[in-house]
Write a structure and sequence with these properties.
CATH superfamily of the largest domain: Vaccinia Virus protein VP39
Bound molecules: S-adenosylmethionine
Low-confidence stretches: none
Oligomer: single chain
Mean pLDDT: 95
Number of strands: 17
CATH topology of the largest domain: Rossmann fold
Strand content: 25-35%
Order of helices and strands: HEEEEEEHEEEHEHEHEHEHEHEHEE
Radius of gyration: 22 Å
Length: 358
Amino acid sequence: MEDTVRLEITLSVEQVAFGGQGLGRLPDGKVCFFPGVIPGERVQVRIRRQRASYAEADLVKILEASTDRVKPPCPVYGRCGGCQYQHVKYSRQLLIKRDQVADTLRRLGGLVDPPVEDTVPSPLEYDYRNRITVHAKAGRIGFFEPRSRKIVGVAQCPIASGPVNALLAALRTSRPQDGEYPLREPGEFRGFRQVNEAVAACLLDVVEDMASPGGELLVDAYCGAGFFAKRLREMFRLTVGIEWSVDAVRAARQGLRDGEVYLLGDVKQHLVPAMAAAPGEGTTLLLDPPTEGLDPEILACILERRPARIIYISCNPATLARDLKRLSGAYSVRRVKPVDMFPQTAEIEVAALLEKLP
Ligand SMILES: C[S@@+](CC[C@H](N)C(=O)[O-])C[C@H]1O[C@@H](n2cnc3c(N)ncnc32)[C@H](O)[C@@H]1O
């Protein structure tokens, strides 16, 4: 076992999988995952762990570097678990994410040729996050190391915005107690807010395009403070948002227009009555669930009511793929648009448009 643990191997990087780990093959064909690489590179890795069907390794040396390799600006890059792609030229990050979405939809979604479009870039490659959460322990303030609860101290976080870094600097001088500290740019609403506002504006354009030309009824499930509903409400006779956060619904109910309603509570409880407000043919259902995706009860309700269109916003390609597969007997996937809400990190946001099969 000791020999296996120390084993160093040279291999080629076939792809970078969702999560940011490079994928290569050991001499026996077993898949091996390791961080910090770019497809096409030749690297030396040290095996850290052997599992039944795959191995995990640490990167030792880059033997043949990609022309898309760049110098990461952050002094703790690689030791901090927050970013996975600072070593990759931004235009290549967008391609990697697009390929990951297509690959996930093929493998887990059963789509033979998923209609995945180019990734919408973030106008800001750094300085974009309007909130971060840092941890304090024994005087050290920062983020967790990869796969660990050990804290890497950070003075400044290059993906966080200036105002958020100012809050971090203030926190550091206040000698905080051990604990977790959310740092957010000032703003009135404390509930869910898109992390990268410039990209959120691009996402609104994508969703508006997908919802066009509108219709009778828009049901915006998991609507937060009405981020999408308020943009789309003029396109529909009736807009119904569903959200269980009291603060978010209170914010959504400000500035209501005719035909705009927000229901407070679980989507499971409100989806059936909300969709009953118009026939399925005139209905667009917008879904923006948390990372776990859709509950089977929600999927059953969709398959029963059969709205004409579904716009599914997802922050997790794996659960998106699973849910699209469950809807595949009744819907076809028309468009899939990755949107780079989180540059330098492995996270991916996707908008998918589904249309009911005849
Ligand atoms: C990913 S956020 C999207 C928010 C909103 N669409 C936006 O863009 O600002 C998911 C939202 O769903 C809400 N939520 C999660 N599970 C829910 C459920 N079962 N019923 C109602 N709301 C839920 C959360 O409170 C959160 O506001």
